[in-house]
UniProtKB/TrEMBL annotation:
Residues 797-829 are annotated as: Disordered. Keywords: Cell membrane, Membrane, Transmembrane, Transmembrane helix. The chain crosses the membrane at residues 245-264, 271-292, 298-315, 342-365, 371-399, 435-453, 638-654, 661-683, 689-713, 734-752, 764-788. InterPro entries: MMPL_dom, Mycobact_MmpL, SSD. The keyword Transmembrane applies. PROSITE patterns: SSD. It is a multi-pass membrane protein. It is found in: Cell membrane. Residues 797-808 have a biased composition (Low complexity). Its main location: membrane. This is RND family transporter. Residues 278-396 form the SSD domain.
């Protein structure tokens, strides 16, 4: 029984002896005429890079997470020496569960923990603060005037008298709500961190997190409880969760392998496809330490994406070779034919993937730029492992005869007169006017509705605490405790006020700072504030025998100078040229940060002068606000670049702007619906989720390229859209369906991950895999009905033969009917 040759391949008996070894492109001849050399080189590279992969480090950097080129961050970095402790810091809350902090046992444990933390590598010891540090002082009004000293009294011995004196000192220190909880059952050890350790090495956040956990376990006993928050702890928890992330990766790989074997029923080809995709991951991981890269908790998901892309391309190559072998073609000839048909489409698809990653470079945040480079490296190696190495390996090993026959089961049955598979009959409906019109109309309505919903998409975190972790994680429970019990949260927004040297205490400057202080304090989401102007008000009350009527900023320069001279250095720098206003926020949600930024910027525009310039912004919330601004600016610019590059590559490949529209419009619909899904799920656009939007475009275009390349090849041979689309379904479409569903199931398992940002990425990627597949199989042929027309060329040889045979049977009584393929043929009436 005759089964037609696949699209784009001349008729051949498939025998190796009859095949011209010098046919094909120069690249094809270079690879397949020197197969042993290719395999030996790949083996040597795999061994070398596999050894290099063992040197790969997993770490994170605070400065890589922030947009260093943004004006807010430039202001912060320019005054970092005067603002130590306002960037990367850890807060450790030590709680007495059996009473108050005025307990000898509690204070002894606090002192020991304070001393242990003080000695940790990477701690900025000069700015560390707790009840036991000398910088924590009190100021009070006595009969003799203002007095002050360390909060822990001289000669403290744990006696009742010492504890009573300590309580009075704390009450006069203005630290309740900041270092001491409102209920006075806990106090904080504030630990600012340096970027490097004393030996010059980058701070190892995983090691620091483990050391903090060791101290927690050591001191959390006998009524003492320890809670820890801060960037270093978040990163440490993410790195600790890596083992569970790897388990989900393994599950996804196992699911993919099982489904691929179910589809092929060929163990050797399944193992080869899996192996080549894993080799790509090994090459990628091996290249990273050679190029000076590290993996961080955000780029650790990239190797799986590379594996997923490799599986998609590998399955296409394997399917093409399997079908050719089923037609009786020798495995080497089948490998060369498949390479000839699909290399250009595969190369274009991988270049689109690479563009989707590379465009992330426009986002001036180093962690995203590193992710873009790491992913681009992975896509580059796929060109060698899945487009070259896999066909060469299959040319030696081939596939089992049973699997080869099974791959042509539907074509063989149809050639024998059987009805097409229901799925193919259903998909063929979208090549007809009625169904195509309905499909395009529904897609347009979905795009419009999705766009309206996506207008509510927020930039930044939408939840309190660390959104990268689950709401019930230990870190977020610790953060919730600190938020409930302290007015000075870890979400600090700091405004720098630059003045001439010695001008920080001038009345005019302090008055402006005081006005901004009151303005910020009235905003929703601002718990409390602190500034030199506020200190002047409090001290003036103290100088006036505690009379609250004097809670005012006195226009007396001598008094202001006197108060400034005794103020803590955290409120101004040594030469009195920089003031700092602190706003302690209830959370770092996008709306909260936007309100504070807008209010401060409006105030700065109205009040900036030569004597005082209001600079944004330092503190954890100031840095996050700058990050949100950069992400917002880059999110849509990034999509313009991605789609522009994808359109250009598709145009080079298809040489038809109509075909480009057919391929790209389904991707655009998926992008719009993905943003609407993020609104519905309460996921904001941020450093962890922004790359997914770009990656969905790059990965999704693979499906459209494989389907459209076959459709175009057939239509240029004169086939109808229906026949061309059916050929594409038989040759590449069913593998698109297979990989789309399989990969969606694989990443869908991530929803159970304890790492929330991995769960979010899993949901978004699964959605994109499915919708890009649906777009390529349903919306693409519907659009092609309106945009593409068959070329006026001669029909393929097998179609001509079929028509001639039908005509010879009975020309006088023949009539025209439409076959399920959509071709007009004549047969006996």
């Amino acid at each position: 029984m005759h089964v037609p040759n696949p699209p784009g391949v001349e008729a051949t008996n498939g025998r190796l002896a009859d095949f011209d070894q010098h046919s094909g492109s120069l690249l094809e001849r270079a690879l397949f005429n020197h197969r042993r050399t290719v395999l030996l080189l790949c083996l040597l590279v795999t061994v070398l890079l596999g050894w290099q992969a063992t040197r790969l480090q997993l770490n994170a950097s605070f400065e890589k997470m922030i947009p260093t080129g943004h004006p807010f961050i430039a202001n912060y970095l320019g005054h970092r020496q005067e603002l130590s402790g306002l960037g990367n810091a850890v807060r450790i809350a030590v709680i007495n569960t059996q009473g108050s902090i005025y307990d000898p046992h509690y204070l002894e444990a606090l002192q020991k923990l304070n001393d242990a933390v003080y000695l940790l590598p990477g701690v900025d010891r000069a700015f560390m603060k707790s009840l036991w540090t000398p910088a924590t002082r009190w100021v009070g009004v006595t009969e003799e005037g203002l007095e002050g000293g360390p909060v822990i009294p001289d000669g403290y011995d744990g006696s009742r008298a010492s504890l009573d004196l300590l309580q009075r000192n704390i009450e006069r220190s203005n630290e309740i709500g900041q270092l001491v909880a409102f209920d006075q059952q806990s106090s904080i050890i504030y630990v600012p961190l340096l970027a490097t350790t004393p030996d010059g090495q980058p701070l190892d956040y995983n090691a620091l997190s483990q050391q903090l956990e060791t101290l927690r376990a050591q001191y959390q006993q006998d009524g003492i409880e320890v809670r820890i928050t801060g960037f270093a702890k978040v990163v440490g928890d993410l790195i600790q969760g890596l083992r569970q992330i790897l388990l989900f990766f393994a599950a996804a790989i196992a699911i993919t392998a099982a489904v691929l074997y179910w589809y092929t029923r060929c163990l050797r080809s399944t193992v080869l496809v899996m192996s080549c995709s894993l080799v790509a991951v090994v090459w990628q991981l091996g290249l990273l330490p050679m190029l000076g890269f590290e993996l961080d908790p955000y780029s650790v998901l990239v190797p799986f994406l590379v594996f997923a892309i490799g599986m998609s391309h590998g399955a296409q190559k394997m399917n093409g070779i399997m079908q050719d072998i089923g037609r009786g073609t020798h495995r080497l000839v089948a490998a060369r034919f498949t390479f000839r048909r699909l290399f250009l489409a595969g190369l274009t698809a991988l270049l689109c993937d690479a563009v989707g990653f590379a465009v992330l470079m426009i986002i001036k945040i180093e962690v995203i730029q590193d992710l873009a480079l790491i992913a681009s490296i992975g896509v580059a190696v796929l060109i060698f492992t899945n487009l070259i190495l896999l066909p060469v390996l299959l040319s030696y090993l081939g596939v089992s005869e049973r699997a080869a026959r099974r791959s042509l089961r539907s074509e063989t049955a149809e050639a024998a007169g059987a009805i097409r598979h229901p799925a193919w009959r259903f998909l063929d409906l979208f090549t007809r006017r009625r169904w195509a019109t309905g499909c395009v109309a529904i897609a347009a309505l979905m795009a419009a509705g999705g766009y309206v919903v996506s207008l509510d998409l927020k930039v930044g975190d939408l939840d309190a605490g660390a959104p990268e972790l689950r709401a019930d994680s230990r870190y977020n429970q610790d953060n919730a405790y600190l938020t409930r019990h302290y007015g000075a949260s870890s979400d600090v927004f700091a405004v720098m006020v630059k003045t001439p040297a010695g001008g920080c205490s001038s009345y005019d400057t302090l008055k402006r700072v005081d006005n901004l202080d009151w303005q910020l304090r009235s905003l929703p989401g601002v718990d409390s504030t602190n500034s030199l102007a506020l200190l002047n008000r409090r001290v003036l009350v103290g100088l006036s025998e505690g009379n609250p009527k004097w809670y005012e900023l006195l226009n007396n320069q001598a008094t202001l100078n006197m108060i400034t001279a005794g103020a803590p250095r955290g409120l101004y720098n040594e030469d009195c040229s920089l003031l700092t206003l602190y706003a302690f926020l209830t959370d770092h949600k996008a709306d909260t940060l936007a309100r504070v930024v807008d209010s401060t910027q409006a105030f700065a525009r109205e009040n900036d002068s030569e004597q005082a310039q209001f600079l944004l912004a330092a503190g954890s919330s100031g840095i996050e606000a700058a990050t949100n601004i950069v992400v917002k600016q880059a999110s849509h610019e990034m999509l313009w670049w991605v789609y522009g590059a994808v359109c250009l590559l598709c145009l080079v490949t298809f040489r038809s702007w109509r075909a480009v529209l057919c391929a790209v419009l389904p991707l655009m619909l998926t992008s719009i619906l993905c943003e609407a899904l993020m609104v519905w799920l309460g996921i904001g656009v941020k450093v962890a989720t922004l790359p997914v939007i770009a990656l969905g475009v790059g990965i999704g275009v693979d499906y459209a390229l494989y389907v459209m390349s076959i459709v175009l090849a057939e239509m240029r041979r004169g086939s109808s859209l229906s026949h061309a689309y059916y050929q594409a379904l038989q040759f590449t479409g069913k593998v698109v369906m297979l990989t789309g569903v399989t990969l969606a199931i694989g990443v869908g398992t991530w929803i159970f991950s304890p790492i929330k940002f991995q769960a979010d990425m899993g949901v978004l990627l699964a959605f994109m895999f499915v919708w890009n597949m649906v777009g390529a199989l349903i919306l693409l042929p519907a659009l092609a009905y309106f945009l593409l027309r068959p070329q006026p060329r001669s029909a393929p040889a097998e179609e001509q033969a079929e028509r001639a045979q039908a005509t010879r049977k009975s020309p006088s009584t023949a009539k025209t009917v439409r076959r399920p393929t959509g071709l007009e043929v004549r047969h006996e009436g």
